């Protein structure tokens, strides 16, 4: 029995699709997108440390959330619905943790007043943008699919906007010599990550209640 869910919730959950009714082509596309997101998560975390850019950390957190969502979709093909809900809950908690970490890192950067290195920041952000465009390209054929498939497409497309924001922050740091453009973008992205985490956690908890209710009733 399939659980009932609101497509709007899936859009908020972002990249946690159900591929149960998809063909092998869609599964391959999800696998490619998963590998791209894992690679860029690692790259941006390392580059964020080396350049001192907090917005790269925030963008890395976004890649992490997407990678977990893609992995969740692939793993859930043969898993019970309750396990998918449990994994989604773990994903939401991890997203919230990253959001808090980015905010703390932004506060630390604000107190030290040290601006990030804009060239590394901009180059890596452009690489991340290319990766998201690559993900969007492989998922393009399924953009008009069911609510879950469309949520993945919209999520990937919207992530590219976050990459553009980091590029803009790098240009702002380069032009001003100050760190505030990086901190402004990072804070905005961290807040969005926390809001998304809240939505994911709420949706996962609702599904857990739905799946455990029959057992409790029995």
Can you tag this structure with a few keywords?
membrane, mainly alpha, transmembrane helix, Cation_efflux_TM, single chain, CDF_Transporter, 218 residues
Please specify the SSE layout and strand pairing.
Layout: H1 7-13, H2 24-51, H3 54-75, H4 81-112, H5 118-139, H6 147-176, H7 180-217
Subcellular location: Membrane
Domain Cation efflux protein transmembrane: 32-201
Membrane topology: Multi-pass membrane protein
Give the helix/strand class: mainly alpha
CATH architecture name? Up-down Bundle
Average pLDDT works out at: 80
Q: How much of the polypeptide forms β-strand, as a percent range?
A: under 5%
Number of helices: 7
Using the coordinates shown, work out and report the CATH topology. Answer: Alpha-lytic protease prodomain-like
Structural account:
The protein has 218 residues and is an all-alpha fold. The protein has a single domain, classed as Alpha-lytic protease prodomain-like, CATH 1.20.1510. It has 7 helices and no strands. The protein has helices spanning 7-13, 24-51, 54-75, 81-112, 118-139, 147-176, 180-217. It is globular.
Briefly summarize what is shown.
With 218 residues, the protein is an all-alpha fold.
């Amino acid at each position: 029995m399939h659980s009932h869910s609101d497509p709007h919730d899936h859009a908020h959950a972002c990249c946690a699709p159900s591929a149960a009714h998809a063909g092998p082509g869609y599964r391959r596309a999800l696998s490619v997108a998963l590998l791209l997101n894992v690679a860029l998560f690692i790259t941006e975390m390392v580059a964020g440390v080396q350049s001192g850019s907090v917005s790269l950390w925030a963008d890395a957190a976004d890649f992490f959330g997407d990678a977990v969502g893609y992995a969740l979709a692939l793993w859930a093909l043969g898993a019970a619905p309750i396990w998918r809900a449990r994994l989604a809950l773990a994903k939401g908690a991890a997203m919230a943790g990253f959001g808090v970490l980015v905010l703390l890192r932004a506060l630390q950067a604000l107190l030290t007043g040290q601006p990030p290195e804009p060239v590394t920041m901009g180059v890596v952000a452009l690489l991340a943008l290319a990766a998201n465009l690559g993900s969007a390209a492989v998922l393009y054929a399924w953009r008009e699919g069911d609510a879950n498939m469309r949520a993945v497409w919209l999520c990937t497309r919207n992530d590219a906007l976050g990459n553009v924001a980091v590029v803009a922050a790098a240009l702002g740091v380069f032009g001003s010599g100050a760190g505030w453009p990086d901190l402004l973008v990072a804070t905005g992205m961290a807040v969005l990550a926390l809001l998304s985490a809240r939505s994911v956690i709420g949706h996962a908890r609702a599904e857990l209640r739905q799946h455990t209710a029959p057992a409790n009733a029995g």
